[in-house]
Amino acid sequence: MGITIAKKPELDINGQRWVEFAPGAEILVSSIANPIYRSHQALVNRHLAAINQQAGVGTADFSIGAIPDVQLETDDELFVELAAKHLIKDWKGVDVEEKPGEPAPYSPELCVALINQMPSMYFLALRTATDIARRVEEKAKATAEKQ
What we know:
3-stranded antiparallel β-sheet; 147 residues; alpha+beta
């Protein structure tokens, strides 16, 4: 026999997990396989591609002088906003400067502000969301229990 067609790994599209991002502070992260997240990510990518195409990025015609004097959001801002809305769902141990010690209710807007203050949280959320989708830990536990 020449080749075996393997089954595509099942993705966990609804999974969520609490992860600590600082001592005493946690975020609730959902799966990167969530169809709404993936759809919105595709929209952001198409938006950025359209901007690049208008400016001639990647072509011989590209020139800094040809770029209009328009302020556009950066891809970082768009992807952080996307994560705050669709990947990070809640938090514990977070407060705001105006009310120290009082738990701040989760909102995507406050989450963006926290990610801007602590960018490592964004990368932790992406790694966790990817891990949830792949269900790495659950598969490892199931395998260990079978032995």
